[in-house]
Write a structure and sequence with these properties.
Blueprint: H1 3-28, H2 32-37, H3 45-54
Helix pairs in contact: 1-3
């Protein structure tokens, strides 16, 4: 794997983990009654969070302009 590809893979993994945690945390905060109103139960939460996380696209590489003190804008 090239370094750029490793970076993309890591960014994607972290983005997916953030989405998983956010969805799981939000759904876990609901009461059992609120979840039932949505047609869900507590055991459904990990699967739903996993589905949301898998939908995250590969994170593109960040492109940066080099900070060269001797370069001048034209």
């Amino acid at each position: 794997m090239q370094i750029e590809q490793i970076g993309i893979t890591l960014r994607t993994a972290f983005a997916r983990r953030r989405v998983y945690n956010k969805i799981a945390d939000e759904l876990s905060a609901y009461t059992d009654r609120e979840l039932a109103d949505l047609g869900l139960s507590r055991p459904d939460i990990p699967a739903l969070a996993r589905q949301a996380a898998e939908a995250v696209e590969a994170a593109p590489a960040v492109t940066r302009q080099p900070n060269l003190p001797f370069a001048r804008a034209a």
